[in-house]
Amino acid sequence: MLKADAEIIVDDEIVLRRFNHAVDGLKYDMIIANHDHLLPWLPWANAYEKFEDMLNFTEDQIKAFDDGKLFGYDIFYHGELAGSIDIHDIAEDYRHCDLGYWLDRDFTGKGIMTRAVAKLTDYCFGHLDMHRVVIKAAPENNASVAVAERLNFTREARLHDEQLLDGKWYDTFIYVKIQ
Fold first, then answer.
1. pLDDT in the model for residue 43
2. pTM for the complete prediction?
């Protein structure tokens, strides 16, 4: 079973900390405030109708982390919660996984996500012994596409009408980095 560190230092500005209940209130408020910013690309933004939904989500994430099935991290920038990033769809036998991420709109444009994704990609290769790391993004999701391309992930495929997001069908770009 895979094990991951509870904290990953990206650089002197950014730290990744495994999901825990300490920031549930802040994260819930952030998701509600960023609903329209997140919703076009992340349908789970509709899942948080009440604070209890956040508590249940975090509890599920903690268990998945402990079981080596998913490694979710909150992103802290200068000590402030800025968003989240995770390693999911882990196929340990095949040595590949996916990365997913989101950032509060107030923290965009600072290179935070690019640095966090770069560090977590290196972590997947080095610590988790992955061979293939995947990022999936709708072509219209300019921010996520830019992160993948900035980090020299290879666009491997375009899946047509693969995601139903906010009532509209979107294609999905599959970006891959191989160790």
1. 81
2. 0.95
Name residue 4's beta-bridge partners. Answer: none
- Other C-beta atoms closer than 10 Å to the C-beta of 167 total 6
Nearest Cα residue to 179 out of 124, 98, 136: 124
Q: Express each pLDDT in 38-83 by its tens digit.
A: 988 888 888 888 999 999 999 999 999 999 999 999 999 999 999 9
Return the pLDDT at 167. Answer: 83
Q: What are the CA-CA distances from residue 156 to residues 51, 106, 147 (Å)? A: 38, 31, 15
Nearest to 100 by CA among 7, 32, 38, 35: 38
Within 8 A by CB and 6+ apart from 48, the residues are 28, 31, 32, 54, 57
CA distance 97 to 91: 6
